[in-house]
Each structure stands twice: as structure tokens, then as C-alpha cells.
Amino acid sequence: MSALSDRGIGDEADLRSLFGQSTAVYASFTGPTHVLETLNDAFGGSVAQEGAETGVALVDAVPELAGQGVVELLDEVYATGEARTVRDTRIVLGSAPHEREAFFDLTCEPRRDATGEVTGVRVIGVEVTQVKHAQRLMAEHRALLEQIARDAPLTDVLDGMARCIEQLVPQELFVSVLLADPDGLHLRHGAAPSLPDFYNEAIDGIATGEGVGSCGTAAHRREPVVVADIGTDPFWDDFRDLAVRAGVAACWSTPILARDGALLGTFALYHPEPRVPQDTDLALIEVFTGTAALAIERHRGEQANRAAEARAEAALAELAKAVEAERELRADAEKRAAEAAELAAKMRVAAATHAQAPRPEKCQLGGKAGCAEAAEIKVADSWGDAAWGCAVHVEEALIHVRSIFIASEELGGLAAYLNR
Known about the structure:
By secondary structure, this protein is α+β, with helices and mostly antiparallel strands. The chain has helices spanning 2-6, 12-20, 41-46, 58-61, 70-80, 129-149, 154-168, 197-203, 213-221, 240-246, 279-356, 391-400, 413-418, and strands at 24-30, 35-39, 84-93, 100-112, 118-127, 174-180, 186-191, 206-207, 225-227, 250-257, 263-271, 377-380, 386-389, 405-406.
């Protein structure tokens, strides 16, 4: 306040006029109980919640300030006569369920009379709640980007994003992210940690189309859809009872689009009371819709890569099976060829042996009675036994003994018989 005094602004009316035209908060108090003497609209709207009256002690006008450090700060300045400046002072204002967290940079200076005696305290400050919330949101946003870069599960990223927004935004709201099917015709549950389970289950799989709530319409139009009052908007005719049960009265939905314009899903903010978005809300939606798009697109890319890798591995496995089958067939064919060659060699040896055996003079097939006919034809069986016989006995043997075959070289021989 010394700088203001140097500029010739000294009385309370001038100070009130100056700060009443700015976003800064200003109030002056008198006496040890800090009776509110003057205040600007900003102080009344942010600190006193428009309920403070002059001539009333601060703790009586704003009871929730007790024990939060502000009254204690005024006590210290009043007692010591020394100015104090504090930054990022956190104050919880209002009462449940409408209480809110606020942050202020405050400068408290003593007020003195003509003799220099401290008669009160004046407070000048700036509410930095939005700045603090923006800093927190950006910090959380960076953390989300790091999660995405580390390929964290999509459900974790989206759920964390929703909780971050719900915790840091001053107004009560609920965040919902729906994911588009590959054909873009239906929306599936992605994340909505604060909406009731029955609500999430009911809208899981809703169609995209004109008039299908805020999200179905936004997905269909590929543009934001703001429904300020679910109770009267025709887009919610089919879902109004569901919304009432869930305790939501407004829904602003924005399509989540890929870089090529493909539909990835929707990002929605629900509110328990009817309301329209402010500039800060629109900025918030823009930032986190982009974050959701990045996470979903990266997730889909990873899924596509894993699917391609799986297909490649399956193709390699099938190729390996085919190669192994071909190897087994080749080995079997080589084995059969070796066995055939071995059998052919044995047959050649057997045929040569039978061919070289001397021919007897008489038929050997006459049995016990014998046969005096001349031996004309040589026969053999599959066990390698051979005999010579006359034409009659050879014919009988061929008819009645199935394993018998003609082994004479001039009639085709053993090899000719086996290869017939």
C-alpha cells in the first residue's frame, strides 16, 4: 500500500473505486476483531461468497475462515504492525455440498491513525485459483502424456484422465469417454469413474446418430454437441429417465477424431445442474479431447502392430509345419526308395541263385509217389524255396499254392513275377 500512498491515493473510497474495477480482492478491517469496514465486489464474490456485510467481524461474516490461517494472519499484522505477504494461500470457502477450494496471493498491511497507532488491517490480493488449477491440470496432463509414451494400458490412461479432471476442476462434474467401434456405428464404454455403473452399462453400445443423446449425436455429426438442460432437450428423450436416476442435468460432448478424421470416440462432461460451458470449460475440453485422441490412436496402432505380428508368427508357424511335413515326406520317400532298392537287390540275387541251380532230370513235384516225367519248369515260393517239375505238376502247384510262381528265366523269372 505504500506505493499507492506515494501516488496520492489515501482514502478508503479511492481504494475501493480502484480495486472495484479490477479482478483483485480488497477489504479493510478495523479493530482487533477485524470488523469489515469496506470491500470490493471481488472480495465479496470470492471470499465472502456475497454474504458479508460491513460492520460485522470477519469470522462472523465468513465462519468457515476460522482455523484456515487468514484470521491468524490478520491477528499477526494487527499485533506487530508489520506488513505480511503470503502466496498461494489455500482457503476452503462455502459449505458442503457447495464448498470450493480457492487460492489467493494476499498482502496485509496495518492501518494507522494520526499518531501511528494500529487501528486495523487492509488486505489486497489476487485470487489465483484458476492459475493453480491450470498448473495442476497441466502437471497431470504431462503425467498422462508420459503414460501414453510408456504404452500404459488405455483403460488406465483414460480413467486417470477422467479422475484428474473431476478432482481439479472447481465445479462438480463427471467425465465420460466412449470408444467407437471400428465401423463407427456404435460407442462402447471407455472410462467414466464417477458415473453410476447402471448408467455406464445402459449406454455401452449406443448407436451413433442424430438425436441419440449428446454423445451419439456428436459422433454422428463429427462436431461438439452442447446440451445445457437434459430435462428439456429432445436429444435426450430416450435417455431422460436414465439421466435423472444418474443425477446428471447437462452434458457437453465432443467427438474424438484421429488425425485422418476417423471417429475414435467421444469425450463428455456431465454436470448435476443445467449449465452452459464457459471459456475455461471449452479450453479444458479441447486439451483433454486431444489427449484422449492421442491415447486411443496410439493404442489402436499398437493393437494393429500386435495383430500383424501375430499373423506373421502364425504364418511362420504354418510354414515351419509345411517344411517339416515336406521333410518327413522326403525322408519317407527316401526310406521307401532305399527299401525298394534293397528288395530289388535281394530279388536279383535270388533270381541269379535260382537260375544257377542245376536242373534235375525228373519232376520233383510228384510227392511221395514221385513222378517219372522230365523236369521242364522251375517254380519257387516267396520264402526262396525252388523246385523243378513237369508241366502237369507245375500247373497243379500254381492253382493250389498261391505263393508259388514260375522261376524259369525263359518264362519271365522271379523278378518278372514280382514286378507284374
